[in-house]
Amino acid sequence: MFKRLRNLVAPPTVEQRAALLAGKRITYTLKRSGRRRSIGLRIDDRGLTVSMPLRASERWLHSVLQDKARWVVEKLEGWQTHQPPKPRWVDGEAVPFLGEPLLLRVRQSLFAAPAQHRGKELWVFVADERDAARIEQAVLHWYRQQAEPLFAGRMAHYAPLLDVVPRALKISAAKTQWGSCTARGILRLNEQLIRLPLRLIDYVVVHELAHLREMNHSAAFWAVVESACPDYAKRRRELKTVAL
User: Fold this and answer.
1) Domains of the chain: which residue ranges?
2) Confidence bin at 124 (pLDDT 50/70/90)
3) Looking at the domain covering 147-240, what would its CATH class be?
């Protein structure tokens, strides 16, 4: 009895594995948990993650992987195709802001100073111009400073059009969602949206606000979205091509 209880609350185990799927060797992360009752597959920027019950058999795991092999390979290839190149945090590199590139200007400074937006350039001041981590930190801090007031302004613009009253806006650093909305009226918008064109930011804002009218993705929900964003389908397709 006590042994069974310990198994139920045992922490998940994690290991790295590889399997031959649809003729390709695929590495993946395997997570075993006593809380799971089925095998689930997820693909994101870290690759394939397989979650399975603690005592599930290897035979069951192999069966699920082979059954989903083609799907896994196609999803991984699609994700890699849409992955933007990783930015190089050096002087002269382009960084995206509202869908347009800003030329990154890195300058050495003995004193801490916030990043400055000057026309089509973003100036960053660091103690060591070769310190990529510090440069990245400065740029991301500047992104967050721009995101909150801009997102709040777009929310304030669209909320009356949809006849909704959100309770609060929170800036999110989620890895898999551009935005979310709770039944209590709290909207979360991903800080990474600040890199995208305003039309895509507006689509996400409208999408989440529409959930205050319809907490689902029914035809009624999409009708609410369309009322404020008539070409939402086009924007939605465009957003799906952007890797988060």
Assistant:
1) 2-82, 94-142, 147-240
2) very high
3) alpha beta
